[in-house]
Every structure is written in C-alpha cells, then in structure tokens.
Amino acid sequence: MQNLSIFQSIVIYAIPALFAITVHEASHGYAARFFGDRTAEMLGRLTLNPLKHIDPIGTVLVPLALLAMAKVSGGPLFLFGWAKPVPVAARNFRKPRRDMAIVAAAGPASNIAMAAIWTLVLAIASNMSRGAGTAELLLYMAYFGVFFNVILAVFNMLPIPPLDGGRVLSGFLSPRTAASFDQIEPYGLMIIIALMVLGVLWKIVGPIIMIVAGFFFGLAGI
Question: 79 to each of 67, 187, 190, 209, how far by Cα in Å?
C-alpha cells in the first residue's frame, strides 16, 4: 500500500474506522435503551451519525499523525485512537449488573458483526478486476475493515475497567468482589498504556486478533 497517496490512504482507513467506532458506540446506546436507560438518547448520542461520536483528538488528530508518520518513514502502520464513550446510567436498568454487562458486550459484538460484513465486501472485491483502481481501493478498505473491527472487538474485551471486557467481567463477579474490581477503573488507562509501552499488550491480544482475523480472511478466500 506504499504506492497509495496520503489522500487514498486516509479514505481507505477513515471509512472503516468511522463505521467501526460509530456502530460500536451506538450499539451501547441502543442496548442501554432496550434495558431501560435513555441517557444516550436524551443527549443525542443514540445515532449512527459519526460526528456525534468523534473525539477531535482521539478520533482525528492521533490517527492522522500516526498515518502520516508511517507514510513518511515507510515503516509499519500502527493506528491507535478512541471515540467519545456513550453515556450509560446503570441505575436505570431493571437488573443493573446483568444489564450493564450485556450493554458493554454489545459494542464488541457489533464489531464482530461488521467484520463479517467487511469479509463479504472483501470476497467480492477480490473477485473484481485487479487492474481497476476502484477494485484495488475497495480491496484494501475491506481488508482494513475486517482487521480494524477485530482489533477493536478483541482489545475492548480485555478485562480491564473501563474497557467493555472489564464491565462484562464485573457483571459475573459477586457484588462485593465487583465493587473492589471496579475501583481499578481510574487507573485502567494507565494500565493499558503501561502494557503497551512494555510490549506486553500485543503479546496478549495479538494471537487472538490474528486467529479471529485469519478466520474471516479465510472465509473471504484471502
């Protein structure tokens, strides 16, 4: 993909990424509303409009800077970023602990569903004329769509609050143990960054990502 212009690269990465984070966050809101919490809806966050979920720094500046660095250096691309989390008030749920766990799992589940959709697009694009510029761009976009959604799903299921996996795990613990476990949340981001800096994070999620992504790529015949 080094032969692509910076504009083409932005298009290829931005479209799947925006879909991934938008549907991920909206899924939390829709699941929360199903269980009785309308906080996201009242704040205008229950929407598939990506502008409502974009964080100027985490969704735009950081990924663009990493993309530009990869293009200039010619090195491997490592994208990292975040969106504005959808607000959820668990006190409005009928069964707060159970419902919160399901609401948290809805985000990663939506990413797995989108990975399946991009797999279909990938299969179609791979059978189109390789000489066509549009087919090539669609192929790259679908490939990244699968990979990015799998990364988002696996990463968010790490059992570290405030990631979705931490909230899911909390729902399965006893109330007392869950209360102690949830106290990790203020330090969750620091834990994740520490794991990343130490090179441990990829050793944890990497094999899972490659297995899941490999499954989808296999279905597409890639």
Answer: 7, 23, 18, 15
